[in-house]
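Sequence and fold:
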Amino acid sequence: MAQHAVFVAIESDAGQRWTVKADTLTAGSGHEIADAINEEIRAAITRLVQRHEVDWGAYTGPIYFMMHGVQSEERARELAAALHAALYGDLEALAHAVPPASPH
């Protein structure tokens, strides 16, 4: 909070699963996230749930984000970095980490 930055972390769950967390309140009142960015983040997390990469019941924002059940530390780190970038307006890493479903 003292740094006025978005808090993003990963943590090991019981066993070999990981959790990705982000909290935008720590960035202070001056940090605003556009609705379009929140929608993209929400859609990406929904895709992860649908693909069974994270557990159902993920928190999809707009202030607090949490994804349980990530299968590896590497994937958790990738998702955390992509989420962090997205919360600062850069969606490129998120689109790479969680690509949209291809049209059939």
